[in-house]
């Protein structure tokens, strides 16, 4: 779906922008030479009783904000340039800046797009298409996704994956039978986490690579628009500094949209090779992390009362687990006390088609909290205002 929407979104945004090239024709259907700014932003209040940060400081009540502009430039009929910056405040009130992506799209034809640069990987649906706060139905991310807005005590099994490389996206139109979307990419790849003990897989994009191998991946999805889509993604790459240890991940994503309700979810699995030594004997073990979430929404406008038209209800359940049991020494010990399940309940009030006020509450159950953090209370309440522009 992203391939189809990208060109129309860029064109629509460009039509509202300011002319930057004097040679572009006033009535050009291509809008060549125009720059547009789109994006989103949010402000979120989080109430979280009896919760501490890593230094032991009280973080019961936080207000955080983000402003995320997206810059779009149509260089020619074939070439579009896109970049996203994120400006945010963290729990300590400090301002953080991050380049989410910056890339060039080359429209080979009506069905094929070649992307080069830093981009969000087409791995599942949430990371590439659904994580912006005004699109995300909840005020927090699914439990399987750590980082990018925080995940409380739940560790997550992956980040929202972005990297630098090349992607080829195709749309195969099957007429009345639907469409098939395919993505194939090669990127810099994962790397070994820094620290005294090594171990662990870091997915954040960084300059350069820590070994001589690239990562490869792709996604294949079948869609019968506008109601449903199901996709399968795969990712593999060497992550250790010496290039000997491999990381593999997959996800199955599904999405159904009805007239008043929707159901979506993802099933995620990953395996990381880890090595060690026991009484002089070297060994390599596979370390697995898995998770899934399912989300349902319902729009109260189905009841036929005008004053309920903007109201939407959301429920999301997430569950994650890993192999961590202390047997792999210090490798992957960050999973201690961070695996479990989470349920989110929320009600959204849509002020405009791209502006929403969210009230949500979530509760987390940690399976092995005694392994690392003791008895953590992780019940959070959110009040968020999010908008897209």
Which structural category fits the helices and strands? mainly beta
How would you spell out the order of helices and strands?
HEEEEEEHEEEEEEEEEEEEE
Low-confidence stretches: 1-30, 370-375
Oligomer: single chain
- Percent range for helical residues? under 10%
Coarse morphology: globular
Sheet-strand content, in percent, reads over 45%
Verbal overview:
With 389 residues, this protein is mostly beta strands. The chain is built from 2 helices and 19 strands. The chain has helices at 2-14, 126-130; strands spanning 18-19, 34-48, 61-74, 79-89, 95-107, 112-120, 162-173, 179-187, 191-192, 201-202, 215-224, 228-238, 246-257, 261-278, 281-299, 311-322, 340-352, 355-366, 379-388. Strands 2-3-4-5-6-7-8-11-12-13-14-15-16-17-18-19 form a 16-stranded antiparallel β-barrel. β14 and β15 form a beta hairpin. The longest helix has 13 residues, at 2-14. The protein is globular. Mean pLDDT is 81; it is low at 1-30 and 370-375.
List the helices and strands and how they pair.
Blueprint: H1 2-14, E1 18-19, E2 34-48, E3 61-74, E4 79-89, E5 95-107, E6 112-120, H2 126-130, E7 162-173, E8 179-187, E9 191-192, E10 201-202, E11 215-224, E12 228-238, E13 246-257, E14 261-278, E15 281-299, E16 311-322, E17 340-352, E18 355-366, E19 379-388
Antiparallel strand pairs: 1-2, 2-3, 2-19, 3-4, 4-5, 5-6, 6-7, 7-8, 8-11, 9-10, 11-12, 12-13, 13-14, 14-15, 15-16, 16-17, 17-18, 18-19
């Amino acid at each position: 779906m992203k391939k189809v929407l990208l060109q129309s979104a860029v064109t629509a945004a460009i039509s509202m922008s300011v002319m930057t090239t004097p040679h572009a024709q006033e009535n050009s259907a291509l809008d060549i030479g125009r720059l547009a700014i789109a994006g989103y932003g949010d402000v979120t209040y989080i109430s979280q009783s009896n919760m501490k940060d890593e230094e032991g400081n009280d973080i019961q009540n936080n207000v955080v904000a983000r402003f995320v502009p997206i810059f779009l430039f149509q260089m020619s009929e074939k070439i579009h340039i896109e970049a996203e910056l994120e400006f945010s405040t963290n729990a300590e009130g400090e301002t953080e800046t991050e380049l989410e992506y910056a890339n060039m799209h080359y429209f080979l034809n009506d069905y094929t797009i070649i992307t080069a640069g830093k981009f969000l990987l087409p791995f599942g649906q949430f990371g590439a298409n659904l994580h912006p706060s005004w699109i995300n139905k909840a005020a927090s991310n699914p439990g399987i996704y750590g980082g990018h807005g925080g995940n409380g005590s739940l560790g997550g099994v992956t980040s929202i994956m972005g990297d630098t490389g090349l992607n080829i996206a195709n749309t195969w139109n099957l007429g009345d039978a639907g469409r098939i979307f395919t993505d194939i990419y090669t990127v810099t790849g994962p790397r070994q986490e820094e620290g005294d003990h090594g171990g662990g897989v870091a997915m954040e994009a960084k300059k350069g690579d820590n070994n001589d191998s690239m990562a490869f991946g792709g996604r294949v999805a079948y869609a019968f628009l506008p109601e449903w889509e199901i996709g399968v993604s795969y990712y593999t790459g060497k992550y250790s500094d010496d290039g000997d240890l491999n990381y593999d991940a997959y996800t199955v994503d599904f999405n159904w949209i009805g007239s008043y309700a929707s159901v979506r979810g993802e099933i995620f699995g990953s395996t990381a090779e880890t090595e060690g030594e026991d009484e002089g004997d070297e060994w390599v073990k596979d370390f697995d992390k898995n998770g899934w979430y399912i989300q349902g929404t319902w729009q109260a406008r189905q009841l036929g009362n005008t004053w309920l038209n903007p109201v939407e209800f959301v429920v999301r359940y997430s569950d994650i687990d890993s192999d961590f049991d202390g047997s792999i020494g210090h490798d992957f010990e960050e999973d201690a006390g961070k695996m479990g399940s989470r349920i989110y309940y929320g009600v959204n009030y849509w002020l405009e088609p791209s502006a929403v006020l969210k009230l949500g509450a979530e509760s987390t159950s940690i399976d092995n909290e005694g392994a690392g953090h003791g008895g953590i209370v992780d019940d959070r309440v959110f009040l968020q205002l999010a908008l897209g522009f």
